[in-house]
Amino acid sequence: MEIFGIPIQAFLGQLLLGLVNGSFYAMLSLGLAVIFGLLGIVNFAHGALYMMGAYVAFVSADSWGLSYWAALILAPLLVGIVGVVIERTLLKHLYNIDPIYGLLLTFGLALIAEGMFREKFGVSGQSYSVPELLQGATDVGFMVLPNYRAWVIVASLTVCLGTWFVIERTRLGAYLRAGTENPRLVQAFGINVPMMVMLTYGAGCGLAALAGVLAAPVIQINPLMGSNLIIVVFAVVVIGGMGSILGSILTGVALGLVEGLTKVFYPEASSIVVFVIMAIVLMIRPAGLFGKEA
């Protein structure tokens, strides 16, 4: 059986691989959307934080003998602490001025981080083994799906939807949204808004690190892995709507699928299809598919 002249096995297999990429896009764009939506900071250091998460997993296994499962907890914690330090020492001075300054600052921090890791680890990629529990593959009929890639899809979507639920459907999320929209009013109720903002930025950085750990067994870990991906992730966030958490999740998954299908029907366009979609969306709806019009 064929779909538009393509064997259905190849079609469904590429669709599933696109879902894996879409899961990474959703995870990374989620952290960006949380930071921008709640703090108004365009965090261009997000790709570097993603890279740092992958390196924490690599170093923790290579030098400390820690397992992959320990790295899933350790990397977001350590990188989240780095985010807290950045927010308290640098970003807190930029909240009441033009967002372009935050973008320039975080872009500079990304270049510094890449330079430091390049000096320490070099430019060649480092490999990270798939955990023993997730090794092997499962025959799903139309393809043999590696168990680890299935885990990435499940873990990413679970984290994404859980984060959306906390921010949009819980009292804590209501405090976060209120604290960024009217901090004086929220502080009048005895809530420590600066602490809440600091922890929110740290949590967004931790999400980037978590995505890095998930990606470590799939790709070669190198200092440029974040910069190679962050432009696509920014395009995902713009298409979904800057600051829209659910929009970033849905758009990330959808664009991963579109990219996967493009590799089947027109492989030459697979590297630019996301940007073509972004241009079309911005012409029709500048605020993004799920964003609020100004």
Chain-wise SSE layout:
Blueprint: E1 2-3, E2 6-7, H1 8-39, H2 46-62, H3 68-89, H4 99-121, E3 137-139, E4 144-146, H5 147-169, H6 171-181, H7 183-188, H8 193-215, H9 227-240, H10 245-265, H11 273-284
Can you walk through the features of this model?
- The protein is mainly α.
- It has a single domain, classed as ABC transporter involved in vitamin B12 uptake, BtuC, CATH 1.10.3470.
- Helix content is 69%, strand content 3%.
- The chain contains eleven helices and four strands; from the N terminus they run ββααααββααααααα.
- The protein has a two-stranded antiparallel ribbon with strand order 1-2. The chain has a two-stranded antiparallel ribbon with strand order 3-4.
- The longest helix is centred in the first third of the chain and has 32 residues.
- It is globular, with a radius of gyration of 19 Å.
- The mean pLDDT is 87.
